[in-house]
Amino acid sequence: AGPASWRARGAQRRFSRRISTVPPTTRSSLPPLAQWAEAASRHETAAAKMQLRGHRSAAEVLALWESSVGVGSRRSGAVLAAACLWRLGQLSATVTSVDARNINFARLLELVSKAAEQGALGPSALCDALLAAVYLRERHAALGPLLTSCAQALALQVGGANSRELANGAYALAKAAFRDLSVLRSLAPEAADGLRSFGPLDVCRLAWAFASLDCREVRLFRAIAEEAAATLVDYGPQDLSNLAWSFASLAIHDKRLVQALAGEMRAKLREFSAQSLANMAWAFSALAADLPALCLQGLAQAATVMAEDFSAQGLSNVALAAAKLRLEEVGLGRALAKSANRRLEDFKPQELANFAWASAYSGFNDPELFHAIAQQAVAHEEGLNAQNLANLAWAFATLGLPSKEMFHVLVTSAESKLSLFAPQSLANLAWSLAKLRLDSGPHLSLLRGALATEALSKLSEFKPREIAALAWAVAGIGGEVREGSTVARLLLALREEASQKLCSFPPHELSNLVWAFATLSMGSAGEQELFHTVAQQAIQRLPEFEPQGLSNTLWAFGTLSFREAELFREVSHFAGANLRDFKLGEVSNLAWAYVSAGVDAPELFGQVERTLAGKLLQLDARTGASASVLPSPEAANSFATEVLGVLWSLSFAGRLSDDLLSLARRAASRRDGGQSSGSGPSRCPEPLPPALSPGRGGRAGEPRVVAAWPDRLALLKPPDWIVDPDRVGAAGIGQVSAYLSALLPSRQWRLAGDADHRLGLLHRLDVPSSGLLLVAKTLTAYHDLQVQLAVGLLVRDYAVLCHGWLPPDRGGFCARVHWVDRRSSRSVVRPWGRPSYTEVQGVAHAVRGAEAFTFTRLRIKTGRRHQIRLHTSHAGYPTVCDGRYSSAGTLRADSPWCQRNALHRWRLGFQDGAGAVREVLAPPPPGLSSALAGLEPRAGSRAAGAAGEPFLWLGSMRQKK
């Protein structure tokens, strides 16, 4: 849309200004006789128009023309007819349907049209006729053909037109949306050659006309830019905004003109109307103008003051400009939101979508406003085009506002319009659906089905940013990618398309791309080839990476165990020298990547340790004097997670010093402001409830406390009890969290009701397994035990009965464990799985009839889901009675003599709050003991490590038999 106020602005002078003396023709090459003829034509036209000045109605004008028919020459009659049409255009608001049906009106139009075709009208009369036809619009069917005749005639006489006529002719064609651009293009050379004779209004009308019809005549606009930049001081605010709008609409960037426009705007800001300011702001943003800080500040301040005066379109344009130009005026976002909230009903669908997108891009989150935007989007769903749908989805997803009703409407509407989506809109919609992770079948089915299919058909048109966003979206929705599915085919195509365009990927998009493929755990040869190429690109462009992008890139390589030695070496040197610029979470990801990939980097690990120590010392200094300076709970939790990640990596790599560990434990002790219990400090042990004292339980089959301290306790979990607080077990499955709620009332023990801290539970234990659980009763204990868990001070030993004879010299299992899908509960061994290690501490071979078994003592160094059960099964020694990791036949054979999974956590080792080493033991429960009692030792075997406690149990049970 062009400047909407031009007609109002020119209402009083639309035609009258053209009567005044105008510059001579723009073509000095016309022969003298032709120049005389043009001058005579203009004189005739001006005289005829003067004759009509006193006529105030269409009836009077038509009566004058009727009385003059047949009087004078054919040429003078044609000129008078054109002048009458010109006057009717001036009086268009008063022309009634009766006037339009007047036979003389039809004859007048016919005569002017024929005169134009026969060359009887000069440029001045033709321009008048064109403008009149525009303003009379649809009053008569003959106006369309007349406009075409006059336009074609003007193209033939363009050499004789002056600046005003060229500008008005182009303006009329644009107002009429005349699609034959050959006529407009015929004006361009003449206008470019004679531009110095144009006034500001003529320049603006000319530029606006070409921009409105999307006619990109570069030579003309180069001339306009040169002329305007030198004369902008003569331009008013509306002229400035109209000129800027024209260049922006055609995406023609002239640096000198932009800087001149910015300077003039700043000098005349107080004279700008709201609409002119909005147009100016939009133009600068569309041109991605690099404006001086003072100019941006002035623009932002003026927009804040005028916020209530902007139209809906103006608000949308200013919001877009604020986002793209990074206008940081305090209060601008609030002022725009307040004004928009009052007039949302006036917003057209595109304006609504643009305003939402711009607000989200600027990070302005007003839930009340966005709720109203969602309601408007739902109400006007039919008017939302593909880009509007994508922009709305992107805005709500960026701000984390899951309006389910609106997204249901967006998804339904998008599905019917997917063929109209451009690649950018497809990528944005996919990203939005994945970002919000709405638990809705239609959303996921759209992303995995129709949207994926549409993206496949257009993938060659995708730019690097769109490829990375689409890959990110597919990774974000999670789920297993089935071979041959639409999503699988899309991922293969994305990989191939990305491989061809990698040289064009910015570092940020390279990072997003490999992150997506790593998250999907796609470690095939094809991905390895892609990652190798990415590694080469990354090495060449390391200084261009942001810290987050670099750490995410290495995280992706580490996740898939792609050991690109040169990349890891170069990043080690580069990141080590720049680690001060990394956030702690980025340091954690970087360190984890090296550990996961099995790459040793002593210098980098040393720098990582020093970086963490520095941050912990800073925290110690801030919180040592007063608990009032503690960070928010959210920030503290995030910081703690990052610290634990770094500690784990350093410990796993064997690079953790005692000094750093002490510093980390001291920091952990201050996480809750020094509170050592749920309701206040506690200096002495508290007695346990009688029914739950160590060694005594409540009802049969329930958990029971086996050891307790003032701030922590050890719990024995029976089989078929679920530990995870956020999971609900099936029928017959008990909830450890419910038991803890009864044991530790949250009114006294705040942690027992704190889901963010897992109710104090430090670790998991599979539902079918039994054994010891460590539970923190206070935040201080919880944070301290988390540190111990991360660095291996919290020891977890298991007694496991498995099939087959495990070799006595088997040191352990180190297969990498991958959790297939968060919606399932199965883990698998994959090359791209997480680093995992299970240590074998002793074995005893046994038989039951013709079957071989091993009773073994295991210790886990990592705590992956189902780690022991998966490791033993993968090595060929599945645990007894395991319905998930052994065959159905094996399970059927095990069930009659062992009714439960033969895995029991029998020992916990840790340090208490004072640093003393503690140990808790729990013999196998009766169900497992009876199964063990049915075993016989292997003849002639020697049990390695048989002095361990579980093996004493096995011996004693054999004696009891």
UniProtKB/TrEMBL annotation:
One example of a Gene Ontology biological process annotation: mitochondrial RNA processing
Gene Ontology annotations for the cellular component aspect, listed alphabetically: mitochondrial matrix; ribonucleoprotein granule
Alphabetized GO MF terms: pseudouridine synthase activity; RNA binding
Top-level lineage group: Eukaryota
Residue ranges of every copy of the Pseudouridine synthase RsuA/RluA-like domain listed in the record: 750-874
Limits of the RNA-editing substrate-binding complex 6 protein domain: 202-438
InterPro entries: FAST_kinase, PsdUridine_synth_cat_dom_sf, PsdUridine_synth_RsuA/RluA, RESC6_dom
Region (Disordered): 670-702
PANTHER family: FAST LEU-RICH DOMAIN-CONTAINING (PTHR21228), LD45607P (PTHR21228:SF40)
Protein name as annotated: Pseudouridine synthase RsuA/RluA-like domain-containing protein
